[in-house]
Design brief:
This protein is 25% helix and 40% strand. It is of the alpha+beta class. Helix 3 (101-112) packs parallel to helix 4 (131-142) and helix 7 packs parallel to helix 8 (328-337).
Length: 367
């Protein structure tokens, strides 16, 4: 693992490589994350890394923020990379490009076949209108458990997966013999009970439990916030519980708008009658507690093994925006893992299994 910051990408690459010592390790697969300052040079960065390390297979993307062991880079030019050795028959690069979900499913299933127990680290283009269906299509076609993130950038949104790409989902799939442990942590905490959507239209919730939706929201958030709804922006969200999980899980979506006269809510997702929802708050303290919970769960699954490395995909709204300055989120992970090499990015959305999350962190450890 190595990382570096410099206004010149060549200097940042050399700093990262010097700290990683990658050329001496015989690695053949690398992960690369660059801040969006270097988005336009990512093809040159990949070519430079291939020439300097001999590693042909690089996988990664760009982020407004990136991270490495114990450190976060936001709003500055930086590079983070991690490389390792994986038998050639134990990994496959994938790239859906601009294919539709059906096209991508057919292509991947034909090329790789479906095999349960695979694990994939992937990156996706947030502008892809098929994304909500494309992620489960890749899972169905390959049998893989996917983790990853959506590219974040104020400019170009490049991805690399053995070569330059964009527009869809790309990354690397590992065969079941490659041991990986992964965990997800939420950045929001539920308030109030779970409610049933009893009337709605597209993304508008009209009624919950056969009561006006706004009335239910006010009841759950409490009298103080209910008197001044202007204070809940960026603090109160809508969560959709996920069934069939071994611990409580939910998908967080934005509360887009409120119409006080009609007493309805607009949310950042399509809603159907019969859906269940709850309200939650974005809470730094609760997020810190849940991050430690996830790290403890991973530690119990890892046991006495020392992870060889890790990839972390966290939401842009986390990092310094939720945990505070001085790389507190990554330092918390470092405190739990020790000096296990970790790299990653801050995403426009996170992927775990076949779902798109928001405000979460997804940590994957190679064992």
């Amino acid at each position: 693992m190595g990382h570096g910051t410099s206004a010149d990408w060549r200097s940042a690459v050399r700093t990262a490589l010097n700290s990683a010592g990658i050329p001496e390790r015989g690695a053949n697969v690398g992960f690369l994350y660059v801040t969006d300052h270097f988005a336009g040079a990512m093809d040159e960065i990949q070519a430079e890394l291939q020439a300097l390390t001999g590693i042909e297979t690089w996988v990664g993307t760009t982020g407004i923020g990136i991270c490495a062991t114990g450190i976060e880079y936001f709003d500055e030019p930086a590079i983070a990379l991690l490389a390792g050795s994986v038998p050639d028959d134990m990994h496959n690069v994938i790239d859906t490009g601009t294919a539709t979900p059906d096209e991508a499913c057919a292509k991947l299933a034909g090329a790789l076949g479906t095999r349960e127990g695979r694990f994939g680290i992937v990156h996706a283009d947030p502008h892809n209108t098929y994304l909500a269906d494309l992620v489960p299509a890749v899972v169905e076609a390959t049998g893989a458990f996917l983790v990853g993130g959506l590219t974040s950038s104020r400019g170009e949104h490049p991805q690399i997966a053995g070569g330059m790409t964009s527009g869809g989902i790309s990354g690397v799939l590992f065969e079941p013999d490659v041991a990986v442990a992964t965990g997800l942590t939420q950045g929001c905490s539920p308030i109030g009970p779970v409610h049933e959507v009893t009337d709605c239209q597209e993304n508008i919730i009209i009624a919950l439990d056969e009561r006006p939706a706004l009335e239910v929201l006010k009841e759950d958030i409490g009298e103080v916030l209910a008197r001044d709804l202007g204070r809940i922006g960026g603090y109160i969200y809508v969560a959709f519980p996920v069934s069939g999980m071994d611990r409580p899980d939910y998908l967080v979506r934005n509360l887009v708008a409120i119409d006080p006269s009609a007493e309805v809510l607009a949310v950042g997702a399509e809603v159907s009658e019969g859906d269940t929802v709850m309200f939650c708050r974005r809470d730094g303290q609760a997020a810190h507690v849940d991050l430690k919970r996830m790290l403890s769960d991973l530690a119990s699954r890892v046991g006495e093994s020392t992870p060889k490395g890790g990839i972390y995909h966290s939401c842009l709204a986390r990092g310094p925006n939720l945990f505070g300055p001085n790389s507190e989120e990554l330092r918390t992970i470092q405190e739990a893992l020790g000096d296990v090499p970790v790299v990653g990015m801050f995403c426009n959305g996170e992927i775990s299994h076949q779902r798109l999350y928001g405000y979460t962190g997804v940590l994957s450890l190679f064992l």
